[in-house]
Amino acid sequence: MTSLLRAAATAAVLFLWSAAGAWASADSQGLERLDPGTRAAVTSIVEEARKDALPTQPLVSKAIEGATKGASGERIVQAVRAYAEACRHARDAMGKESTEAEIVAAAGALQGGVPPDTLSHLRSARPRESLVVPLVVLSDLVARHVPVSVASVAVLAPTRAGAPDADLLVLRERVEKDIRSGVPPGSAASLQSRAWLSARRWQVSSETKNETPLSKSPRRSTP
Amino acid sequence: MRFQSATLVRLIMGFVLVATLSVRPWIPAWAQPAPAGAAQPSLLLSPRAPLTLEGATSLGSDPGLAYGRFAHRLSLGFGRLELGALMGAHAQNGAEYGRAEGRLLFDAAKSTMWLGVAGQRDYDRGESTLPLLGIGGWKRLGNFVSSAAVQQTRDGVTHYDYHYSYADTGWVATGRSESIRRATIHTGLGWSRGRVALESAAGISLSHAAGPRTWVRGSAAMTVLPGFAIVGTGGSAAPALFGTPESEHGQATLGVRLTPAWSPARVGGHGGGSDSPSWQILHETAGWYRIEVRAENARSVEITSDATEWAPRSLEQVAKNRWRLRLELAPGLYHMNLRVDGGPWIVPPGAPTASDEFVGATGVFVVPN
Questions:
Q1: Separation in Å, CA of B357 to nearest CA in chain A
Q2: What is the structure's pLDDT at A131?
Q3: Chain A residues whose beta carbon lies within 8 Å of the beta carbon of residue B83
Q4: pLDDT at A58
């Protein structure tokens, strides 16, 4: 009986060892394209991130991106380190309960120039729900040249007012459409956000519970 | 309703002028779009449709023409709708007129077709002209924009009858104004590169009641600072066209143009010049998307993206100049670069951008839920 238990324990240890090894090697898949020095530096950053319970796959992905784009080893290490730092700041701003997807999305937003305060405010606005979609929308607006301060308010205000993910995505689409039709990006984001809030107020006041604000057209001002 | 208030017109003109500080090139605005470096001033009043105000007045003694125009643009499912109004006054001959304009625009990747209708009221004569019709289009070819249009417009001519007056003991001329319809055919060519934008247009106006009238207009704009350009224009006398008032004499202006922040992004996939590839992402079935790239005379097209773990993926050529790749994408935000013929990785033209530590910038796109 004792030998059976010993064998089972040994098997379990071996299984966990091999699983951990497989996980680690899966994590660093693709790093073989880096030169040995760069690979060692990147692996060290990845290991450090793993110890801090930060997402590691995006760090590896960042290194591969650099390799694909022909960046120097030094540049790749800098970029991976900066990304790991962004992930760390993102988690600090949003809290330790943040999911990997949230941390990755928030790190991208931080690197786009979004201040950590905005992440904290978003978390306060949505303490239990996922922040992935608000963060994706925020990063997209910033990428469309909406000034960071305007983009932050444009996403934060509806999120605070309880905007569901679907509404935020519709808001993003409308901003995109407005920009395509020639509206300056900052104005487009600001006005669509305000349009949502107006519709929301109208909805609350008329106690129409069955429809979400963006299922109605925002009221337009006429010249 | 008779519109006689020259004071009101002048006030409006002044407001428009101050609001925009714009000297408009005397190019038919409807005929060809403003080059990217020479955006027209616009004042945003609506979240969905920009309202454009513009105006000009002659600062010299002749011809004393002042006008203001506003246009409201709406996005429709199948195209765009522009609604505009123009008011003008001529200090020298006391002419006052107003015009309402409507135009439908249908956009393709690098070209636009339009169909317009307008009505004009000449307040000093108490005459209305309806409808004025036009059809035209323009096409972008690299740094050039070529345009062509046919418009049926109205024009005023004055006939003089002479008779000998024994009372005055001399010949006396009696003028009789007549409004005639003209068919105007015109073409234009615009070019812009960097800070400089040139525009030109020439046309011939034909009528059964008067001889052919040819005209030519040109303008040059140079952006000195972002949103601030010096504009010089010139041209011969020309009939009224959509979006442009009639000018009875040759024109030459020099002025400045202030513009609000101009968005260079034409998102959703269409690039700028003919050398640039254009691209788009299309939803196929649940979770599957198709990236299409149009690259002229390309031998290979590749993308790299976090959607492909940054591994370069070659697109398949499906037709001449057309390349395609199917990808399974989960909802989220993605980054992408593309390259043609093994060249440098570039941001897909027109895509929103995020900074990238390696090649400067990467394109961003969102896959919604």
A1: 6
A2: 94
A3: none
A4: 92
